[in-house]
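Hi F.,

I've been meaning to write this up properly since the lab meeting, where we talked about keeping a consistent format for the predictions we share between groups. The idea is simple: the sequence comes first, exactly as it goes in, then the C-alpha cells exactly as they come out, then a line or two of notes. No screenshots and no reformatting. I'm using this chain as the first example so we have something concrete to point to.
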Amino acid sequence: MATPSPDASPSPTPTTESPTPAPASSTTATTTKAATPAAKATAAMTKAAASSAAEQVVAYAREHIGYPYEVGTMGPDYYDCAGLVAAAYRSAGYNMPFSEAKESSGGTYVALEDLQPGDVVVWGSPVHSVSIYAGDGVIIIADGPDYGIRTVTLDARLKWDTFAGGRRYLG
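Output, unedited:
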C-alpha cells in the first residue's frame, strides 16, 4: 500500500477562537461512528488471521508430501488421513481433534464449488477419509500405505470416490 506524500493533506490552520463544546447528542453519535471502523478493522484482522492460518495448514501438508502412511498415526514420521489433518491444523494454532469422525462433522459445511484452501475435504458414505484442500482443484491426502501423503486433483478423486462435503474450521 502506498504511503501518502507529506503534502497530500493540508496542515491545520491555527485558530484563536475557543473551542465550542459539542452537544451531548453529537458525542453519542461520534462514539457510535467511531465503533464502526473499529469493528470493521477487527473483522478484517479476523479474516486475515483465518487466511494466514489456512495458508499454514496447507503449507504444513505440502511440507509432508511423500511421508509414509500408517493407520493411527499423527506424525512426526508417519500419518494417516486424520492425523495429517489434525497435525496441519495444530501447526496453525487450531486444536483439531485427531478423529476422522470429528474432523468430518465439525466446522461449517462447504459445498464442492465453495472449497477454499485449508478446508477439510471429506470422502465416502460412510466417511472413510479426510483431506486438505490446497486450492486450484487439488487436495493433499494421506492416501494409504501404497501412496503415503500426496496431492490428487479433485477431478481424479471424484472418478472413484464420493465427495461427502467440505468442512471449514478457519474463517
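Notes:
The radius of gyration is 24 Å.
Strands lie at 108-110, 120-123, 129-135, 138-142, 149-153, 163-168.

If this format works for you, I'll send the rest the same way.

G.
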